[in-house]
Amino acid sequence: MKVIQITDIHLVPDGNLLFGEDSVSRFRNCITHVNAHHADADLCVITGDLTHDGDEASYRILAECLKELKLPVRLLLGNHDERAVFRSVFPDLPVDDRGFIQGIHDSDETRLVFLDTKEAGTHEGRLCADRLAWLDRTLAEAGERQVYLFSHHPPFELDLPSMDWIRLREEADLRALVRKHGNVRYMFSGHVHRPSGGTWYGTPFATVPGTNHQHALDFALTGPATTSMEPPAYAVLSLREAGVVVHYHAFMDQSQQFPYYG
């Protein structure tokens, strides 16, 4: 299975700038690039912070932009989103029995699980008892499928204090479920606006840059992160029986390219 992961698009009403850039224009450029280079993908997953302020106008812009995307798409919520406003614009998207924006995508051999880690009033990620119970059932029902877990907030520390303090709070609860079921093969998150990868108690993970702005790689900074304008990218995920491959495609790169002659 080939999956495109886009994250942290932070859309604002048309004509507005965010950190000096047009986040809508950048997202449209991203969609054009995906259509041109990865139209063979099975799915596109956008892992949260769909808007910067959770406003209706930005969600409507998102809906218009997605009409141009040639792939089926799943949308997750981030800390900058507003669940009620999102659902008013996207009323037909799957939710769980408690109204959280959670769901699955199954194939013969894989189950993709999409988590809702949005919690009102905080930038931290949360998984309440209801959401954890849903995940427990969902992992149990996966059968022989390999599970790939998508969320906005990562549960793991990245040695970046300015982002680690607003990661997912229920790290221990999630770890217990992953250990209990033993079928989570890989975890993909957004939120940190950086490419990173590693393992979390033996489970591999990856995070992805945003499409408008990034967070500076600062291993000492505490408190809010420093915004940087490093190049944006999205991830190309190849989910195979033999393993997982993650590539980062810098869709605005215009640097020179040269033949390699050895």
The unreliable regions are none
Q: Can you summarize the main beta sheet?
A: 6 strands, mixed
Q: Quick one: overall form?
A: globular
Strands, count = 13
Our count of helices gives 6
Strand fraction equals: 15-25%
Rounded mean pLDDT score: 97
Radius of gyration over C-alpha positions, nearest whole angstrom: 18 Å
User: What's the N-to-C terminus distance?
Assistant: 33 Å
Helical coverage, percent range: 10-25%
**Helical/strand content category:** alpha/beta
Order of helices and strands: EHEHEHEEHEHHEEEEEEE
- Order of neighbouring strands in the sheet with most strands: 4-5-6-7-9-8
Keywords:
6 helices, 6-stranded mixed beta sheet, 262 residues, alpha/beta, 13 strands, 5-stranded mixed beta sheet, 23% helix
Question: What does it look like?
Answer:
It comes from Herbaspirillum lusitanum. This protein is globular. The mean pLDDT is 97. Helix 1 packs parallel to helix 2, helix 2 packs across helix 3 and helix 4 runs parallel beside helix 6. With 262 residues, the protein is α/β, with parallel strands linked by helices. A six-stranded mixed beta sheet has the order 4-5-6-7-9-8, covered by helices on one side. It has a five-stranded mixed beta sheet with strand order 3-2-1-12-13, with no helix packed on it. The chain starts with a strand and ends in a 13-residue tail after the last strand. The chain is built from six helices and 13 strands.
